[in-house]
From TrEMBL:
InterPro entries: Hint_dom_C (IPR003586), Hint_dom_N (IPR003587), Hint_dom_sf (IPR036844), Intein_C (IPR030934), Intein_N (IPR006141), MJ0683-like (IPR040086), rSAM (IPR007197), rSAM_sf (IPR058240). It holds the Pfam family Radical_SAM. SUPFAM superfamilies: Hedgehog/intein (Hint) domain, Radical SAM enzymes. This is Radical SAM protein. One of its GO terms (molecular function) is iron-sulfur cluster binding. Keywords: Iron, Iron-sulfur, Metal-binding. Residues 329-563 form the Radical SAM core domain. CDD domains: Hint, Radical_SAM. One of its GO terms (biological process) is intein-mediated protein splicing.
Length: 608
């Protein structure tokens, strides 16, 4: 790997690598309308605020999780002690953490979890430790993962709840009706932080007739903090108020927790609720509810092994990548719910040991031999000339393409093999290749899509420093259409309360129609882990008044609330019809759904 810096790309380092494979199969069930992708770059010199990815989650010693990228030497996490698959969780510390250059492999589990690790990396399985890959010595092969291998751990991690107003009300209700401020200082501190949100009202003390999921998450945490505990492998809550006990049971049922309800002989009015399912369900409860009391979150000594997840596939990525490695006092740690040793990579750009934030913008990996490798792969008899989409991870026409000129060779290789292709970009470097695309379109189906999220130059510069202006991208659409090429536009992402007004959308659609866009698809911002945190920091600095509203809109996960999506769809539809963009266009609530020849990726944050 050679690292290069250039004066015309201030602050950007290009890491030139020789790839072994550039043609990537899209996993079944991904929901995107194409089966293959080519990505000559990793990382992006566009520097978009919302173009980010999160890291592998590591189990901390307080039961919470943290991205591997954010771990520091000295932090306390959970490791294990024991023999074979029989293990107990024990606190340990991160003693060191560094990178190493290895061939990288993707491990996919049957539940959809994906990890990237070196071939020497080991997981704890039902039959002991196994490497990701076998050695090259035939009968002397070391134990290694295969499809169907059972991995030992604590179950899949759940995302912790956002502290929405509903969550806070539920917490206060559960906590104050289970003992109040005197019993636990951690709970009291949290409650004191929540109370100002409600002014002089005490309505939060009432259990709603139909509580929502946010309220129930907070309620579980509040009751557990004051009336619950975990010990000897059991998580239990005891309460004297039937209304509170019933509401607690209802909340458990909502989130799929099996439980048992018992009377307490010494206290006739008291009911005890015990969680069933072992340590995996205890940990899931802690993540779903996020209690405040530290000592009650301790899983020290908990027996693990009952939760087993099967390997679905192990695939080489075709690259040597710098992979994360940490050393702990126990020699292991728990990553994405599995007991693990050494050499983990962060997802997507963090495969490269680059930070998931600024480094995505300033550390760009360039597969300098991508055209040659792709041409060789397309000559294989097994290649069936299926549609290949480009721009599905990072932008193939980012500024780096002006320096490396990889796309002409890639386009030529695809066309010569008879392979249909599509490109999604916000980079005007594409204009350079329009004559080539016009030529190859005589032989294979070719379609283009340009991402244009807004017209406001000032907001665009703050969100997407380093990208061409909206005016330049509109001109790119015009040039593509004049060349006789189909060119769709993705109005993506639509930013709630920033770019979603009828006036802003109407003006944008008018300009798109004037530029000759073949079709238009609009969809709202979605915030996956990692992107959520980084975009949140940007929003807090640029538009702090919007932070509470975004918390409400994205309280349920990566996608905006259904109510907002429906409102936006009602707003977008008439505007598209007004500008003659409706027949082949529409509003996508979760992501773009273009015709197969104009395939665009669902994962908006990684490509725009």
């Amino acid at each position: 790997m050679r690292s290069v810096r250039s004066p015309e790309f201030d602050g950007v380092t290009f890491h030139e690598v020789h790839a072994r494979s550039v043609l990537n199969k899209v996993p079944a069930g991904s929901g995107v309308p194409f089966g293959w992708t080519v990505n000559p770059y990793r990382g992006c010199s566009h520097a978009c605020t919302y173009c980010l990815e999160g890291g592998t989650r590591i189990l901390l010693a307080d039961g919470r999780t943290k991205a591997l990228a954010e771990l520091k030497v000295g932090e306390e996490i959970y490791g294990t002690r024991g023999h074979g698959a029989s293990r107990r969780l024990v606190p340990t510390r991160v003693l060191a953490h560094w990178t190493t250059l290895r061939d990288a492999y993707r491990v996919t589990l049957e539940d959809g979890t994906r990890l990237v690790a070196g071939g020497d990396h080991r997981f704890l399985t039902a039959k002991g430790w196994k490497h990701v890959t076998g050695s090259k010595f035939g009968a002397a092969q070391r134990p290694h993962l295969e499809p169907g291998t059972e991995l030992i751990g604590v179950g899949r991690f759940e995302p912790t709840p956002d502290e929405t107003l509903g969550y806070r009300a539920g917490y206060l209700c559960g906590m104050l009706r289970s003992g109040g401020f005197a019993a636990e200082t951690d709970a009291a501190a949290r409650a004191l932080g929540y109370l100002p949100d409600f002014g002089a009202s005490v309505a939060f003390l009432q259990v709603p007739a139909e509580p929502d999921a946010h309220w129930q998450r907070g309620f579980l945490a509040g009751v557990f903090d004051l009336a619950g505990g975990y010990g000897r492998g059991q998580l239990a809550v005891a309460h004297d108020e039937p209304e509170i006990a019933d509401a607690f049971v209802a909340a458990l049922a909502r989130f799929g927790f099996a439980h048992q309800l018992d009377e307490v002989p010494k206290f006739p009015t008291r009911q005890e609720i015990r969680l069933l399912g072992g340590v995996g369900e205890v940990l899931r409860f802690l993540h779903v509810s996020n209690p405040a009391v530290g000592w009650k979150r301790s899983l020290d000594g908990a027996v693990i092994g009952a939760s087993r997840r099967r390997v679905a596939a192990i695939e080489p990525l075709g690259l040597q990548l710098p992979l994360y490695d940490i050393t702990t006092g126990t020699g292991d740690f728990v990553a994405d719910g599995m007991v693990s040793h050494n050499c983990f990579a962060r997802n997507t750009h963090t495969y490269l040991d680059f930070d998931a934030g600024r480094d995505f913008d300033t550390q760009v990996v360039v597969k300098i031999n991508a055209p040659q490798v792709l041409a060789a792969q397309l000559k294989k008899p097994s290649w069936r000339r299926e549609h290949v989409a480009m721009g599905t991870n990072t932008d193939p026409y980012q500024r780096a393409e002006g320096r490396y000129r990889l796309m002409p060779g890639i386009i030529t290789a695809l066309a010569r093999s008879g392979t249909p292709l599509s490109v999604l970009t916000k980079g005007t470097v594409l204009a350079r290749d329009l004559p080539l695309l016009q030529d190859v379109a005589r032989d294979v189906p070719v379609s283009l899509a340009v991402s244009i999220a807004l017209l406001d130059d000032e907001l665009q510069h703050r969100l997407e420093p380093g990208t061409p202006s909206p005016r330049a991208r509109l001109e790119l659409v015009r040039k593509a259409r004049e060349a006789g090429l189909p060119c769709s536009v993705l109005v993506a992402p639509v930013l709630p309360y920033l770019t979603d007004s009828p006036e802003a959308l109407d003006a944008l659609f008018a300009r798109l129609a004037d530029a000759g866009a073949s079709s238009v698809t609009a969809f709202a911002l979605h915030l996956r882990p990692g992107a959520r945190e980084w975009f949140g920091r940007w929003l807090a600095g640029a538009y702090p008044a919007l932070v509470p509203r975004y918390r409400e809109l994205y309280a349920r996960g990566s996608y905006v609330r259904k109510e907002y999506r429906e409102q936006l769809a009602e707003r977008v539809g008439p505007l598209l019809r007004r500008h003659g963009l409706a027949p082949q266009a529409g509003f996508a609530s979760r992501g773009p759904q273009l015709p197969a020849a104009e395939a665009a990726p669902v994962e908006q944050l990684r490509l725009l």
